[in-house]
Design brief:
By secondary structure, the protein is α+β, with helices and mostly antiparallel strands. It is built from three helices and seven strands; from the N terminus they run ββαββααβββ. The chain starts with 17 loop residues before the first strand and ends in a 10-residue tail after the last strand.
């Protein structure tokens, strides 16, 4: 060992999206959070009258960008992993809720969602369909003084 040499500096790299250790797989929450923060989101929706109640129906499509050189097999693996990861579902639902609330004409009530995952040429696509009743003020008839 050369006592005159000092350790050199190394560039810090972000953690991997998925860490593998033998048969075990662990996702990195911070990296998924980054992907959702940078996601390309497209939303649409409309109000529909149902049984005297106004209900919001909407859809949000998120594309989580992956490096262009990510192999198709790795994308399919990430899709399968994301489908089973509760943290990925929570991120997708929160994003869809924000998008729906920003477009709805009133506050949204309890959301019912359906989440589907797809491999996309740009990364991983997550589609969230949302249904929620609108919480609207009802005008109350007031009697005079």
């Amino acid at each position: 060992m050369d006592r005159g040499r000092k350790p050199s500096l190394a560039k810090a790299r972000p953690p991997a999206l998925v860490e593998r250790d033998g048969h075990f797989i662990r996702t990195t929450e911070g990296r998924w959070r980054e992907l959702f923060a940078k996601a390309d989101a497209i939303s649409e929706g409309a109000v529909k009258d149902e049984h005297g109640e106004r209900v919001w129906y909407g859809s949000t499509s998120l594309i989580l960008g992956l490096p262009v050189d990510t192999p198709v097999e790795e994308r399919a693996f990430l899709k399968a992993l994301a489908q089973k990861d509760v943290h990925v579902h929570v991120h997708a639902l929160r994003c869809a809720h924000r998008e729906a609330q920003s477009r709805a004409p009133a506050m949204l009530g309890r959301l019912v969602c359906e989440v589907t995952f797809h491999v996309d040429r740009r990364g991983l696509r997550i589609d969230v369909d949302v249904q929620a009743p609108l919480i609207e003020r009802r005008s109350a008839a007031r009697s005079g003084p």
